């Protein structure tokens, strides 16, 4: 996305925009039918074994913890490390009740201070679209996965579908932007959301991006409900080490 695109935010300004909106964020996403269930679906699509006991998982770009909760729901026995670039979003996450083994780290994906692998799985929800160099950061995340470990990228992608773009524009104009304005008094972040989704990869390009970052067995699947063809899970595997 061009940093000066209409209705968009410069990528470097996105964490501070989330800082400003953090206290309202859970209320707004809670009004989105299927939001939490779709995150749980992407977490389940990692196909992690059993209840996750003995596994280490990374929640990349955890926000206020909705994606962290999705991982805990899917594999309650796993150790989960969650990070985000927005300190205020993390404060909202940390204020919630979590089982032992869930930790939060304040760092952007470009730095990953305090994050050390290897991890057995990664969930990256609504992260790549807001990064300056998404392929480079995918490579960085792949470096944290054990051989054979998997990533689930949970993301908006509408560029390949005229219907999806129409639905997305209609929902943004009729619901997301007005609701954001009424709730927070400022619709800047929600106009940015609309624009950033429209300008992000189509689903074929997003799958190719994971392959370019070195992931194998890349597969895509979408969500049920009104976000069918709008929100997707893209799965990839860190290749096994060769002897």
TrEMBL record:
GO terms for molecular function: methyltransferase activity. CDD domains: AdoMet_MTases. SUPFAM superfamilies: S-adenosyl-L-methionine-dependent methyltransferases. One of its GO terms (biological process) is methylation. Keywords: Methyltransferase, Transferase, Ubiquinone. InterPro entries: SAM-dependent_MTases_sf. This is Ubiquinone biosynthesis methyltransferase UbiE. It comes from Amycolatopsis rifamycinica.
């Amino acid at each position: 996305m061009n940093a000066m695109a209409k209705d968009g935010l410069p990528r470097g300004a996105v964490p501070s925009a989330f800082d400003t909106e953090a206290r309202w964020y859970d209320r707004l996403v809670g009004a989105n039918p299927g939001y939490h269930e779709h995150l749980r679906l992407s977490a389940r699509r990692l196909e992690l074994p059993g209840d996750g006991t003995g596994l280490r998982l990374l929640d990349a770009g955890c926000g206020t913890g909705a994606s962290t909760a999705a991982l805990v729901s899917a594999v309650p026995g796993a150790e989960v490390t969650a990070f985000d670039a927005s300190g205020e979003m993390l404060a909202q996450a940390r204020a919630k009740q979590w089982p032992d083994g869930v930790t939060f780290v304040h760092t952007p994906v470009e730095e990953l201070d305090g994050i050390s692998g290897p991890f057995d799985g990664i969930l990256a929800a609504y992260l790549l679209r807001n990064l300056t160099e998404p392929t480079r950061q995918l490579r960085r995340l792949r470096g944290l996965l054990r051989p054979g470990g998997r990533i689930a990228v949970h993301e908006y992608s509408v560029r390949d579908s005229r219907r999806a773009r129409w639905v997305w524009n209609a929902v943004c104009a009729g619901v997301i932007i007005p609701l954001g304005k009424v709730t927070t008094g400022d619709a800047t972040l929600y106009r940015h959301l609309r624009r950033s989704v429209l300008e992000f990869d189509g689903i074929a390009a997003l799958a190719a991006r994971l392959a370019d970052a070195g992931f194998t067995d890349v597969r895509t699947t979408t969500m049920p409900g009104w976000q069918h063809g709008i929100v997707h899970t893209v799965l990839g595997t860190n290749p096994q080490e060769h002897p």
